[in-house]
C-alpha cells in the first residue's frame, strides 16, 4: 500500500501506561492526537489531545477513526480472549475508515517467534491480530513494535522479576548474567512516534528497539552505585520461576502469567534477546539508546527510593 505523511493519529487506551507515553511522544513529534477511552473512563487527557469515548462497537469505531491516518492500540489484558482479542474489530473499523496504518498492542517480547504463546499464553491474541493484519496488508499497513521487557513498568511493581528497589532486595536468577532487552515506557512511546515518521521503512515490519541491553548483575551494580547501599541478594532459577507461574496458570490463577513473563524476560524461550539476532532499529529510527545508570539515578531520585 502506498503511504502519505502521517498527520492525524488516534491512540486507543490513551490513559493507560503505554498509552500515556505514546500520547506524550506523538505530541512531541508534532502529530495531531486523538485519545480514545471507554465510555466508563473518568480520566482527563492532556489539553492538546482530542478526547473521544466509545462503546467499542465497530460502527462507533468506524465513525471515530474517519479522518485519522494512523490508529495505535495500547489495550491490555493478561487473559486470553479479552481486550487484546477485540483488536480484529479495530482493524476492520480502521480499514473501513480509510486509515493508512495500524499499530497493534505489542510492546513486549518477540511475537515473530510462533512459539511465544507456549511461554506467555495471552500472546496468542497478539499473534492472531498480527496474522489478521498480514492478511489485510494490501488494505492497511501495520507496524509491530518489539521492545522486550518494559523496564520502569517492571521496577514499579515490588517483587516483579525478583526486584524490590524500595526494600533493597533482589533475587538473581541463573547467576544474573543473562542478557536481555529492556525498554522504558517513554522510549516505547518514542519508538511508535518515530516509526510513524519513517513509515516507508517501518510499514509491515517488526521494529526491534530497546533502551538498553542489560543483565540482572549490571542492574544490581548500577542500583547499588546510585543508592549508595548494598542490596540483599537471594538466588533463583529461571526454569523454576517459569514453572511456578505455569503451574498457577494451569490451576486457573491468571496472575501466574506474571512469573511466566519474568521467566521469559530472563531467557525462557529466547523471546527477549533480539538485539544480536535481529538487529536494533534505534539508529534507523533516530531513537537514541539510554544510559542505564543515568536512568536509574533519576528513577531512584524521583521515586525518593
Ligand atoms: N513487555 C512488558 O514487560 C510489558 C509490560 C506492560 C505492558 N506490556 C504491553 O503493553 C501493552 C499496553 O499495556 P499497558 O500496561 O499500557 O496497559 P494498561 O495501562 O493496563 O491498559 C491500557 C488501556 O487498555 C484499556 N483497556 C483495558 N481493558 C480493556 C477492555 N476490556 N476493553 C477495552 N479497553 C480496555 C484501558 O483503556 P480505558 O479504560 O481508558 O478505556 C486502559 O487504559 C499491552 O500489549 C501489554 O501486553 C508489556
Summary tags:
single chain; 305 residues; alpha/beta; Rossmann fold; seven-stranded parallel sheet; three-stranded mixed sheet; 13 helices; 13 strands; 39% helix; globular; binds NADP nicotinamide-adenine-dinucleotide phosphate
How would you describe what is shown here?
This protein is α/β, with parallel strands linked by helices and 305 residues long. It has one domain (8-214, 259-304): Rossmann fold, CATH 3.40.50. It is 39% helix and 18% strand. It contains 13 helices and 13 strands. The protein has helices at residues 17-28, 58-65, 87-96, 116-119, 123-135, 151-155, 185-197, 199-202, 216-227, 238-250, 256-265, 282-285, 292-302, and strands at residues 8-12, 32-38, 50-54, 70-73, 101-103, 141-146, 149-150, 163-164, 169-173, 180-183, 205-208, 212-214, 232-236. The strands form three sheets. A seven-stranded parallel β-sheet has the order 3-2-1-4-5-6-11, with helices on both faces. A three-stranded mixed β-sheet has the order 7-10-12. Strands 8-9-13 form a three-stranded mixed β-sheet. Helix 1 crosses helix 7, helix 9 packs across helix 13 and helix 10 (238-250) runs antiparallel to helix 11. The longest helix is centred in the middle third of the chain and has 13 residues, at 123-135. The chain is globular. The N and C termini lie far apart (49 Å). The chain binds NADP nicotinamide-adenine-dinucleotide phosphate (NAP). Residues 13, 15-19, 37-38, 41, 43, 56, 74-77, 82-83, 105, 107-108, 149-150, 153-154 line the site of NADP nicotinamide-adenine-dinucleotide phosphate. This is NmrA-like domain-containing protein. InterPro entries: NAD(P)-bd_dom_sf, NmrA-like, NmrA/Isoflavone_reductase-like, PCBER-like. It comes from Aspergillus caelatus. It holds the Pfam family NmrA. Keywords: NADP, Oxidoreductase.
